[in-house]
Design a protein that fits this description.
The structure holds 4 protein chains of 4 kinds. By secondary structure, chain A is an alpha+beta fold. Chain A is built from 5 helices and 5 strands. The relative contact order of chain A is 0.17. Chain B has a 7-stranded mixed β-sheet with strand order 3-5-1-12-9-10-11. Chain B has a 5-stranded mixed β-sheet with strand order 7-15-14-13-8, sandwiched between helices. The chains are: A alpha+beta, B alpha+beta, C alpha+beta, D alpha+beta.
């Protein structure tokens, strides 16, 4: 099936099998490997991307369902060589270790801050509950989101 | 170690820019021309005879390139290795052949049977559905007890029972200790089976270059060099024709400290198809066929005096090690034995372990590897002793602590603790917690029918693995430090970090040591064609052992740089100092030369002092004289909901002593993550196989990894007791959090339920379990 | 995932035609958060997938003075974030916020969850407590079913072959009413080990003029705890504790697994009924 | 996994027993049964398309009726497998009069293996009971229709 999508601002068109998952489409067809696959049951969140402004788990969406959509992946967050404040927060606060969950975690944080620019610590911990991290114990991730929140609201 | 420019500073990681932008390359991100995708058919049965396999339909599926069965490879791929099978260490050990693909029989759910290579990953999966295997199901064994029961089915028919091996350790005079005791305090203690679950599952890409007879193998591994050695043996290739590359590795926690069937299988397929192949493990496969941790159950007896003095310990334990051995399976429980005395002075100790084959995945090293078992056991038993003798758990700890003047201290299990001050860590943690106030609060809440619990863990662990004599596969580490003509520094290290941040901490050490900007340093690891042999990253050893090798190599480079500088500055080496990243004669900084200027001279080769070799690169292989022994006190404060049994962690205080600290930010991160994993064991995680050997917690739907909202903000601090084992005085901190936290949480929950007469509860502390205990009284 | 034909009808009418044409071979895709994981694990292999996602009219959520309507394809987040619902019927956004995680709520749909009838899903409890009406389209035209008649058994609803759930209607609760949803999450999946939605309307004396309690996670299908309701009607907050003891009355078969036994789920149902009712009455007052 | 249950069938014990071991009735009443053919003494080859919720698969295997003691008890073994895994259930079915009806009690063991075991465990008990409920419910309907 033919689909048209805008990925990180670039309009593209592809022919895909209906069964192809969006995450495989992004990684293997579009060639953006920053989005990761960490599970098969929509629980780990490593595959999170923005789809028409909503954070979604791209392992649980068919590529054909994204026909006509605008998608932002981790690769599309930095603008003009400047890190996004959330990316900066993760770096400043040591919000990652192995880095595998990080792209999805940053996308989840991005959604959270769009909807709630000044979240409490509890808001942040709830806001990233769809993303598993096995390395950090989450505290530095919380710090990273707080850092970004502060930077984005002042 | 003095805090200089870099070392000791909270420097943000140099690894991060690529990772936060999606530019890091993990094994699944590797693309090669004509890449085939491999899917693996795995046994749905825990125990069954294979009477036939029909792959015709799969072979005929369009897009399928190759279908490989056990019969196809049994003569060309050697068995999966185990490095710890010395019968002197493990009396009676049985070492079963461990094939990469099963033939004749399957022995656990998830055991690989057939591999399919196809042009597309989806087609490879389709092909699996077309393979017919004629299974004859056999009765399955799902626990050590079942393995030893009369009439139990035999898993490995070369032998007539399921006993895998035995191991024991003894120190002092246990019989005398028990004879002298006022009381014997006993408890059966279970260490449930856990699944490591790094967020990146395993994966392999293999490529064969026939012109060079070279196999390139990318694997998500913690041990590229050991893997290369083993793969070359398994495939019958010359080791120097095999190149193993660990790309970015998305977490390991011990489960990637191994050699797996898929690594050899993919290597073989790439070679025989002369086409690159990729296999990426699914999460369900990871649950079934990547090593598990723990799974020991045993009876502990403590000989005690009425005042709480511990005289001796006996531990009779069985380990359920699964159907086969992986790389270090038998070695893991031995670490439990070595650390059974914990932070305490008793020296009379005896552990007898019997390991059973069962129809499960093998156990092996999972974060802490043997030490969480020891620490949980002794720290839990301290509280049981306090319970039985009606003493304060702190009093029992203090009474039995090894004093700070006793180091180096040889334990009853004959390991030599390098340095320590256990009281200092405890006192600091108590102060942070405001312990007296907590106890008052607890008493007040109990009157309101609310159950607050305060739990301690005053752990000591063994890391910095380790002297080669005590390790199954070498315990040394290596490094090469070279300075390019323009003054850029490249470090090759034999350790292979995967999240621990050594690209930053090692660069900090170099920056200070050589007087060079941190951005001019590159740390290269994980490529066996580039890096001289090393052992790998595990056992909290990367900095203590690998870092020491690097510091020594750097020292050799620095000596040479100073010699050249002295020659150029017409001075004596002993008068050369480094100031503002310049090598100068003391008191004459204006004359100073940069590392780059000196490196250029070394490479041009004409102004060198007589007898000096040109070039500027040095290597060092470091053999650690001892392990290191980090320690600390963790305090957990929990509340158990009287209506539901749910546990809320209200506070978590951790005072860790990992010796000197190179980067506090990274140390904090390691401790945070470690605590989270230990809490996972205490409250949530458990790999359950049902009676027929099916794993019923085989996905994130049923196996709970801790989530962000499960934790409060951790309150961390350190004491610093440098290790004498290495020149940096570092100990290691990769596993301390995991080792320390499980008993702290368990003790806190059990303390909360004290009004209900609860003395011990096995992990994980699920709400229903706690609710039931509260109902019973 | 095995291969399938994909259809993305733009109208409900063409969707219905496809559903009827393909019958059992087809699966209807709404948010996809139940179906796609099953297909990925090869536990479901429909040969046709009919994606309702392109039907714009089914996504709306409205909160009028008389009626609240939720299109079957409205996402959980659309309910969670609706501007008027916190004042009109806070139980709806409160329930939505308890489902899965932010990404799942962005994508998963209310109608999909209800039609799926997972025994541990959150919406069924709340729909029962709010006495929701479900609009269903089918070969014989449209019909409406009350929530209390809809959830039949484990994953079994009153939906007949060829029928599609199109929307949910709830009578906007009066001023002196309130609701609450209380749940314990299974630690891995987040599904309800037990979840209780309670909704009450008070009379002038502050007693319960009407009470509805929906329970999920406990039995093969979500159910109304009628015994609790009967015990509480006409009574005030003092009667909540005794009434809640009946929250699992009449359940013949309990859900159970290694996370929670039937006994424990029944206990949770009682505890959460008490908590949910107490909160609901407080909010109504 | 243990599986027990009680069901009522609207017929006499003798009639209920007849229905329960009649392969044609079983073929009609077993949820999703596509085929049930007699192979040998009490062993029937079976094909079913069974599923719960979104999980659906085709299974083949056998049903064995043994230890048949009319009209009181018999043993039933179901052994089927498909690409989503396998199910092996065995149990004793006992019949007792209950007024004009028959009460059936069932006690057995079910093993579920393969992919469905690893991901769907919270559904196993419920699904097994649902299917026995459906089976005996359908037999009850047959009994009442033919009464």
């Amino acid at each position: 099936m033919k689909i048209e999508v805008t990925v990180n601002g670039e309009h593209q068109s592809y022919d895909v099998e209906p069964r192809m998952l969006l995450v495989h489409f992004l990684r293997d067809v579009v060639g953006l490997t920053g989005t990761h696959v960490g599970c098969e049951t929509s629980l780990c969140g490593a595959c999170s991307v923005m789809l028409n402004g909503d954070a979604v788990k791209s392992c649980t969406i068919l590529a054909v369902q994204a026909d006509g959509a605008e998608i932002t992946t981790i690769e599309g967050l930095a603008q003009n060589g400047e890190l996004h404040p959330i990316q900066e927060g993760f770096w400043e606060c040591h919000g990652l270790q192995c880095g595998f969950c990080t792209p999805g975690m940053i996308i989840a944080a991005h959604q959270l801050l769009e909807r709630n620019p000044k979240p409490s610590e509890a808001d942040i911990r709830r806001g990233i509950e769809g993303n598993l991290c096995r390395c950090t114990g989450y505290q530095h991730i919380v710090d990273a989101v707080q850092y970004a929140s502060k930077k984005m609201t002042t | 170690m003095p805090i200089s420019k870099s070392v000791g500073a909270r420097i943000k990681r140099r690894e991060d820019p690529r990772m936060i932008q999606g530019l890091a390359h993990y094994v699944d991100d590797i693309q090669l021309p004509n890449l085939l995708h491999v899917a693996i058919l795995r046994s749905p049965y825990a125990h069954a005879r294979i009477n036939g396999i029909n792959t015709d339909a799969a072979q005929n599926l369009s897009g399928v390139k190759s279908v490989v069965t056990g019969d196809d490879v049994k003569d060309v791929i050697g068995g999966i290795p185990c490095a710890a099978t010395d019968p002197e260490g493990f009396p009676g050990i049985k070492v079963p052949h461990h094939p990469v693909l099963a033939t004749g029989k399957v022995r656990f759910v998830g055991e690989p049977i057939v591999a399919v290579a196809a042009t597309d990953a989806y087609i490879a999966q389709d092909a699996l559905d077309l393979i017919e295997v004629d299974y004859e199901p056999l009765d399955a064994i799902n626990s050590a007890d079942a393995a030893f029961a009369d009439g139990a089915p035999i898993i490995h028919e070369d032998w007539d029972d399921n006993m895998a091996f035995t191991w024991s350790i003894a120190g002092g005079d246990v019989d005398a200790a028990f004879a002298e005791a006022d009381q014997v305090v006993s408890q059966r203690i279970d260490h449930q089976r856990l699944v490591p679950n790094p967020m990146e599952t395993r994966g392999v890409v293999a490529q064969y270059l026939p012109g060079k007879d070279q196999l390139n193998l990318w694997s998500s591994t913690q041990i590229p060099h050991l893997l290369r050695t083993q793969i070359s043996v398994m495939l019958g290739m010359a080791e120097n024709h095999v190149r193993v590359i660990a790309p970015e590795v998305g977490g390991g926690f011990g489960c990637k400290l191994n050699v797996y069937a898929e690594e050899a299988l993919l290597g073989h397929m790439a070679k025989y198809l002369v086409q690159p192949v990729k296999w990426i493990e699914g999460r369900r496969e990871n649950f079934l066929h990547t090593i598990h941790g723990r799974d020991q159950t045993g009876d502990v007896e403590l000989a005690v005096k009425n005042d709480g003095t511990i005289l001796g310990l006996k531990y009779t334990v069985s380990a359920d090690v699964g159907a086969y051995y992986q790389l270090l399976t038998p070695a893991i429980p031995t670490l439990t034995g070595l650390m059974l005395c914990g932070s305490y002075t008793f020296k009379n100790v005896q552990m007898n372990l019997t390991a059973a084959f069962t129809n499960k995945m093998a156990t092996d090293a999972y974060r802490g590897a043997g030490r969480p078992e020891a620490t949980y056991l002794i720290e839990r038993m301290i509280d049981v002793v306090a319970h039985d003798l009606d003493l304060d758990p702190l009093e029992v700890r203090r009474k039995n602590f090894i004093g700070k003047d006793a180091f180096p201290y040889e334990t009853g299990t004959a390991v030599a603790y390098d340095s320590g001050d256990y009281t200092a860590a405890l006192d600091k943690a108590l102060k942070m917690a405001d312990y007296e106030a907590l106890r008052e609060q607890q008493a007040k809440l109990r009157e309101e029918g609310r159950y607050l619990g305060i739990g301690f863990s005053t752990y000591v662990e063994i890391c910095g693995m380790g002297p080669s004599a005590a390790m199954p596969a070498g315990g040394w580490e290596s490094s090469t430090v070279r300075v390019d003509p323009t003054g850029k520094v490249t470090v090759l290290t034999g350790v292979s970090p995967h999240g621990q941040g050594q690209e930053t901490t090692f660069a900090q050490l170099i920056a200070d040591g050589l007087g060079v900007d941190i951005d001019d340093i590159r740390i290269i690891h994980g490529d066996t064609d580039t890096v001289q042999y090393g052992i790998g990253t595990f056992g909290s050893r990367a900095t203590a052992v690998g870092g020491t090798a690097m510091v020594h190599a750097m020292g050799k480079v620095k000596d040479k740089v100073i010699n050249i500088a002295a020659h150029l500055l017409e001075s004596n080496p002993q008068d050369i100092v480094v100031e503002d990243n310049k090598y100068c004669v003391q008191g004459a900084p204006e004359s100073g030369l940069t590392l780059g200027e000196i490196a250029m001279v070394a490479h041009v080769g004409v102004q060198l002092p007589e007898g000096t070799e040109p070039g500027l690169a040095e290597s060092h292989f470091f053999e650690p004289p001892n392990f290191t022994y980090p320690f600390g006190t963790h305090i957990a404060v929990v509340e158990v909901d009287a209506d539901t049994g749910e546990v809320e962690i209200q506070r978590y205080i951790a005072v860790d002593d990992c010796g000197n600290i190179i980067n506090p930010l990274i140390v904090e991160g390691q401790v945070h993550g470690g605590i989270a994993q230990g809490v996972g064991q205490a409250l949530y995680e458990e790999a359950i196989y049902d009676e027929s050997g099916q794993m019923i917690t085989g996905s994130f739907m049923d196996y709970a990894l801790p989530k962000a909202h499960n934790f409060p903000r951790f309150e961390l601090a350190n004491t610093v007791t440098p290790s004498p084992v290495n020149p940096m005085g570092v100990k290691g901190v990769g596993e301390a959090g995991t080792i320390g936290s499980t008993p702290a949480i368990a003790n806190a929950v059990i303390d909360a339920l004290k009004p209900f007469g609860v003395r011990h509860i096995d992990l994980p502390l699920r709400p229903e379990k706690l609710w039931k205990l509260m109902q019973e009284t | 995932m095995t291969p399938f034909d994909y259809h993305a009808p733009k109208t409900l009418r063409s969707a219905m035609r496809l559903v009827q044409a393909f019958g059992d071979d087809a699966k209807v895709l709404a948010g996809g958060h139940s179906l796609i994981p099953s297909m990925k694990l090869r536990l479901a292999a429909p040969s046709v997938v009919i994606d309702l996602g392109g039907i714009a009219g089914l996504k709306r959520v409205t909160a009028g003075n008389e009626t609240i309507t939720i299109g079957a394809l409205a996402t959980h987040y659309a309910v969670e974030s609706h501007r008027l619902l916190p004042s009109k019927c806070s139980l709806l956004p409160e329930t939505a916020a308890e489902i899965g995680d932010a990404q799942v709520r962005n994508r998963g749909t209310v109608g999909g969850s209800i039609a799926h009838a997972d025994p541990a899903a959150d919406w069924p409890a709340t729909m029962l407590a709010l006495d929701a009406q479900f609009d269903i389209g089918g070969p014989d035209g449209e019909r409406a079913v009350a929530a209390s008649d809809f959830f039949v058994d484990l994953f079994i609803t009153d939906l007949q072959p060829g029928e599609v759930l199109t929307g949910i209607r709830i009578a906007t609760p009066p001023e002196n009413s309130g609701g609450a949803y209380v749940k314990m999450r299974q630690s891995a999946s987040g599904f309800a080990l037990a979840g209780v939605a309670a909704h009450v309307t008070l009379d002038d004396a502050g007693n319960c003029a009407s009470v509805a309690v929906g329970v999920t996670g406990v039995a093969p299908a979500a159910y109304r705890a009628r015994a609790v309701e009967d015990a509480l009607v006409g009574q005030g907050i003092d009667a909540v504790a005794d009434a809640s003891a009946h929250a699992a009355d009449g359940v013949e078969e309990f859900q159970e697994d290694h996370h929670a036994s039937g006994d424990y789920r029944a206990h949770l149902a009682r505890v959460f009924t008490q908590q949910a009712l107490s909160q609901a009455i407080e909010r109504a007052a | 996994m243990k599986l027990t249950g009680k069901h009522t069938i609207g017929a006499t014990v003798e009639r209920a027993f007849e229905l329960l071991i009649d392969p044609e009735v079983l073929a009609r009443c077993m949820p999703g049964c596509d085929k049930l053919e007699h192979r040998a003494d009490g062993v029937y080859d079976m094909a079913v398309s069974a599923g719960i919720g979104p999980v659906r698969g085709k299974y083949t295997g056998s049903v064995t009726l043994s230890d048949i003691q009319p009209p009181e008890r018999y043993t039933m073994v179901v052994d089927i497998k498909g690409t989503t895994g396998f199910v092996k259930g065995q149990g004793v079915v006992e019949l007792a009069p209950e007024g004009e009806n028959t009460q059936i009690s069932f006690e057995g063991d079910v093993q579920i293996g393969g992919p469905i075991a690893a991901v769907g465990q919270r559904m196993h008990a419920g699904a097994a009971r649902l299917m026995t409920r459906q089976l005996f419910g359908a037999i009850d309907a047959e009994a009442r229709a033919s009464a």
